[in-house]
Amino acid sequence: MDDIFHLHQGDAPLLVSLPHDGTEVPADIAARLTDSARRVPDTDWHVSRLYAFARELGASIIRPRYSRYVVDLNRPPDDTSLYPGQNTTGLCPVTQFSGEPVYLPGAEPDEAEIARRVELYWRPYHDNLDAELQRIRGRHGRAVLWEGHSIRGTLPYLFEGALPDLNLGTAAGHSCSPRLQQRLAEVLAAHPQYTHVVDGRFKGGYITRHYGAPETGVEAVQLELAQRTYMDEESFTYDPQRAEALQQVLRALLQAAME
Questions:
Q1: In degrees rounded to 5, what are phi and psi of residue 67?
Q2: How far, in Å, are 11, 153, 176, 248 from residue 232 at the CA level?
Q3: Is 134 helix (H, G, I), strand (E, B) or coil?
Q4: Sorting pLDDT into bands at 50, 70 and 90, what band is 78?
Q5: Facing residues of 219 across strands?
Q6: Which end of the chain is less crowded, N or C, counting CB atoms within 10 A of the terminal residue's CB?
Q7: Contact 124, 5 (CB under 8 A)
Q8: What secondary structure does DSSP assign to 4-46, as a single string?
Q9: What local confidence, expressed as pLDDT, does residue 1 receive?
């Protein structure tokens, strides 16, 4: 399924999911996008590069080929809002994080097209993510799902003010054990050069909420990074120096997740 997503299987009790890492848009969809949307600005830029070290830790990694503008893998298939009453974007987004339109006027996908995209792109990712979690749990007796995300640090359409550097989400404590949440919070607190929050604006999307079931041996957490911590938010350029410093914290977090 490398044409839809790529799965690297490791031997540790950890699966890193990067559902917004994809940047490709099929030509028939791209032709209907606005000029600004063709840059796929709402990508979680470079997160696969940022988390590449996780292979050294034995983690499995799953990441898609296609952009969230094709289908958002971190939204429920029925497109129920994850944050009722707040601005957000949907399963097949028609609005950018800036509030600008994704599509040219009248070119938005209809219900039939959305359903096709779910079957072609969304379902294979989730079927394989779930299967990999079951494989890991079968081998280790438990599995930790790490949802790796990033976003521009200031987006008035979505949230007020500036986002903290590191935003840990545990679905308000429901997607992982209190012990795991505490270990991760302690790692964050040990690196005061980065601001952080636990279960703030980003509590975890569909994947964290759906698959995190600590009572079954599967724990899930989401880390939303402010992109200023490792890249230039205007040009989307990766900053190796900033990234290397951040990776030290990410490594400590992933190691704590596997304890």
A1: -70, 155
A2: 34, 11, 32, 19
A3: helix
A4: confident
A5: 144
A6: C
A7: yes
A8: TEEEE--SSSEEEE-TT---B--HHHHTTB-TTGGG-TTS-TT
A9: 54
Handedness of CA 247, 136, 58, 8 (dihedral sign): negative
Helix (H, G, I), strand (E, B) or coil at 226: strand
Give the position of tokens 């986002």. Answer: 163
Look up residue 174 and give its amino acid: H
Pairing of strands 143-151, 14-17: parallel
Residue 257, CA distances (Å) to 36, 176, 245 in order: 38, 10, 19
Burial class (CB in 10 A: 0-12, 13-18, 19+), 202: buried
Residues 51, 250 contacting (CB under 8 angstroms) = yes
CB atoms within 10 A of CB 255: 14
Cβ atoms of 44 and 17 within 8 Å: the answer is: no
Both tokens of residue 257? 């997740």
- Average pLDDT of the residues in 56-77: 97
Distance, CA of 97 to CA of 43 (rounded, Å): 10
pTM comes to 0.95
Edge-to-edge, what's the strand order for the sheet holding 14-17? 5-8, 60-64, 14-17, 143-151, 218-226, 166-169, 196-198
Give the C-alpha separation, 223 to 146, whole Å: 8
> In angstroms, rounded to a whole number, what is the distance separating the alpha carbons of residues 184 and 194?
14
Task: Output the CA angle 30-43-257, nearest 5 degrees.
Answer: 145
pLDDT tens readout for residues 99-141: 999 999 999 999 999 999 999 999 999 999 999 999 999 999 9
Please check whether residue 142 is in contact with residue 218, taking contact to mean a CB–CB distance below 8 angstroms. Answer: yes
The Cα 79–Cα 94 span in angstroms is 13
